[in-house]
Amino acid sequence: MGSTTDKIKGTANEAIGKAKQGVGQATGSDRMKGEGVVQEVKGKGQQAMGDAKDAAKDAMDRAAAAARRAAE
Description:
0% strand; mainly alpha
């Protein structure tokens, strides 16, 4: 998966997780609240993965540019 895909899925999972927590709170369902917490954390992890992929790509791009400059 690309970094953008990870970030989009992460945002969606966070939003769904927060909604589940709200429904669980409103209905008194501890199970629903728990599922919401888990899904929200999963979303945060997906977003972090997307950020890490972006950082790695930026580092590789900078290294390649430096190598090109050194070869000139």
